[in-house]
Amino acid sequence: MPDLRVSLAGVELKNPIVVASGTYGFGHEYGEFYDLSELGAICVKGLTPVRRDGNPPPRIAETPAGILNSVGLQNPGVDAFIAEEMPFLRQYDVKIIANISGNTPEEYGVMCEKLSAAGVDMIEVNISCPNVKAGGLAYGTRPELAAEVTEIAKKHSTVPVMVKLSPNVTDIVQIAKAVEDAGADALSLINTLLGMRIDIHSRRPILKNNMGGLSGPAVFPVAVRMVYQVRQATKLPILGMGGVAKGSDAAELMMAGADAVAVGTACFADVFAPLRVRDGLRDYLEQEGLSARALTNTVQPW
Q1: β-strand 130-131 against 66-69: which pairing, if any?
Q2: Residues with Cβ within 8 Å of residue 216, at least 6 apart in sequence
Q3: Are strands 11-13 and 238-241 parallel, antiparallel or unpaired?
Q4: Which of the two ends of the chain, N or C, has the fewest CB atoms closer than 10 A to its terminal CB?
């Protein structure tokens, strides 16, 4: 059997398969079907300083080769997560990655302090959210703002900080370098691509929020390209994601430069998707006589 163990910024995972934030909740529903300890890590539903109810429906809809969503960061708030969800997750032998979003750099700092003290294994900083101080501009679209949030998170965290990059930029490498210089321990990419569909009968957008994040197989080629570009430009570990649905997808992203891989949208269609991806990757590694660590960044340019 191939060795599936990988390291992500010093956090040792038993296998490279992580479930992506926003697609797995806090694991309760999936835990009814299989042991959550079979995963490498769980990246929990995105957390904010206080409870959020999210956007009004309709806020999720199918589209060819994926889904559009504008859920709006619905979550119980960081304090409720620590009090009510952490004890449940700690029953399992699985690493816990807390995804956080804030409106100001100070909010990120407060959440990092609380979550570090609560014992999460890693913090994923979502910089694809509005920045109130910058007039609504997302942190992830400007290098200086991305760097500012990263510095604050690092200052207030005692666990590794992974920054989640937005693909809705002209040059993702520029953002990656900025957060690397600011002290990030790892990168995760890609977040959803901004998209929109219209119901031609009602002549209204299919989402109440008009636009939403596109995820699923449709974005996979973009994810491969961006992971490859970022790997060539930085030395940081990478959690790759974006349309992963089978073992060969995971292998491809790892060849492009990812150290580990997150499964997201596929979970909605198949609760066992993360395990099927893991098993497919294991079979590929066995055929090739490789370990998971040996697969990373092995693409051969023409």
Answers
A1: unpaired
A2: 63, 65, 66, 67, 243, 265, 266
A3: unpaired
A4: C
- 48: which 2 tokens? 């904010």
Write the pLDDT tens digit of every residue in 154-191: 999 999 999 999 999 999 999 999 999 999 999 999 99
The answer to whether the predicted template modeling score (pTM) of the entire model surpasses 0.90 is: yes
- Cα separation, 163 vs 140, whole angstroms: 9
CA-based nearest residue to 4, from 266, 250, 269, 273: 250
Q: How far apart are CA 234 and CA 162, in angstroms?
A: 14
Question: Of 43, 112, 129, 267, which one is the catalytic site residue?
Answer: 129
Task: Give CA angle at 50 (44, 53), nearest 5°.
Answer: 75
Amino acid making up residue 126:
N
d(CA 110, CA 181) in angstroms, rounded, equals 22
State whether residue 138 is helix, strand or coil: strand
Active site residue 112: no
Q: 């066995």: which residue's tokens? A: 286
